[in-house]
Amino acid sequence: MTELKNLRVIFTNRADIVFSDILKKYSMREDDDTFDSDEERETKTTIVKDATITLAKKIITEENLIKLLQKHLEISQEVSNNIITDIKNELLPLLEVHPDEKFNDPIFREEISRKVFGEGEKKEEFPNVVKKTTIQN
Fold first, then answer.
1. What are the residues facing 97 on neighbouring strands?
2. What is the pTM for the complete model shown?
3. How far apart (Å, rounded) are the C-alpha atoms in residues 11 and 23?
4. Are 98 and 112 in contact, with CB atoms under 8 Å apart?
5. Element (H, E) at 24
6. What is the DSSP string of 40-94?
7. Per-residue pLDDT tens for 35-47?
8. Contacts of 110 (CB under 8 A, 6+ apart)
9. What dihedral do alpha carbons 117, 119, 123, 127 form, nearest 10°?
10. CA 19: distance to chain centroid?
């Protein structure tokens, strides 16, 4: 398997939404009360996000990733396989994956920022003139 470790994987706004949907679909959402404050266990969200990045970078085989998810999330092989399938089909196409070297170029960084974050908030424009209306009963 060709390793692509020197890549940056960036979640776009749309990818974040799909990622959240996948977590909901498999009941992987956790609130702050799930863990004791002393506990240093990775959250399910972190495990699934790391699996997504690992899949995007092609660091390990899909089969090994399914086994790792199964072990770390304590789920069946079938559910683990379904999660990986959803990530591949729904999430990976929405990610921005680029070599680290490209980020040395400020123009490229600006283009990626626009893609990921959009052009910025559009300000609502108000007319300089306010129309006076009357309400009749």
1. 9
2. 0.74
3. 15
4. yes
5. helix 13-25
6. -PPPHHHHHHHHHHHHHHT-S-HHHHHHHHHHHHT--HHHHHHHHHHIIIIIGGG
7. 554 455 679 999 9
8. none
9. -160
10. 5
